Amino acid sequence: xxxxxxxxxxxxxxxxxxxxxxxxxxxxxxxxxxxxxxxxxxxxxxxxxxxxxxxxxxxxxxxxxxxxxxxxxxxxxxxxxxxxxxxxxxxxxxxxxxxxxxxxxxxxxxxxxxxxxxxxxxxxxxxxxxxxxxxxxxxxxxxxxxxxxxxxxxxxxxxxxxxxxxxxxxxxxxxxxxxxxxxxxxxxxxxxxxxxxxxxxxxxxxxxxxxxxxxxxxxxxxxxxxxxxxxxxxxxxxxxxxxxxxxxxxxxxxxxxxxxxxxxxxxxxxxxxxxxxxxxxxxxxxxxxxxxxxxxxxxxxxxxxxxxxxxxxxxxxxxxxxxxxxxxxxxxxxxxxxxxxxxxxxxxxxxxxxxxxxxxxxxxxxxxxx
Length: 370
Fold this sequence. Notes:
45% of the residues lie in helices and 16% in strands. By secondary structure, the chain is of the alpha/beta class. A seven-stranded parallel β-sheet has the order 3-2-1-4-5-6-7, with helices on both faces. A six-stranded parallel β-sheet has the order 10-9-8-11-12-13, sandwiched between helices.
């Protein structure tokens, strides 16, 4: 093994996949003997407990939206906190911006792009300038999906590569009495033998839940009355609940759940209606759980799921509804998809694999300096 590295990982505000990935990366590097410091908002340490991996944590308030005064403070704080690093690795556009401005001279710098730009108008123009700066500033730009890698190259990244970001393995949640967890979840939701459609993710525009609600009107009046549940919270909750109530939909917003993998395992059909995704962790979780999955053919989803899911165009509630209904009416196809999902998931890299891959990149970059 190469000599221990001093690695600084930088992220902005996160409650989901980015923070989970940084935590897994920190743990894998610490396990390999490296000195790791995570730098990000205090809320991320509260949520992900990076220090529990053996990494150090330094609070630096990097928000997901530009805030000039706060950004200046973040750059100044990072300028001090990044001294002595062998490698700096930022995660996300905003973290990349402030870390790039604070970067010590001569230190290899990696930025992982986790999301595409979906904004429009003046906001998009501002974000595109940040994106171009990130691409050209980084020694290596990693994209979690092929379209992000290509975008970085178009914007002038000197070295852009694909990087896998994998979902953490589900924590075992056995039933207290030893009963079937799937049956227990379905009983909790009150579905009985009726179909259960499950979606999970932040209640934000990117996830396109209004499209799912419109699709749910198609199966609202079926005799078997499917229940659709959405696990997650976010800024669109009130708007979505209003639509559910106004349209009389059998849709339930569950809020934040710690048992998403159990919900997916209990589903007759899992749905990912997003406008865009890189390598969505919830899709990985669905495949691991053997859930028949209907997803939109966006970003890195097709490469992730292969033939183990049904893909539809984004923003098309009729196509989404048709695919879900077809699976509800075809138990044989659901069984086939479930088996295909588990087989594909078995070949996914592990969190430790991604840490090993990142470390190989760090060693490559630091060795080139010598």
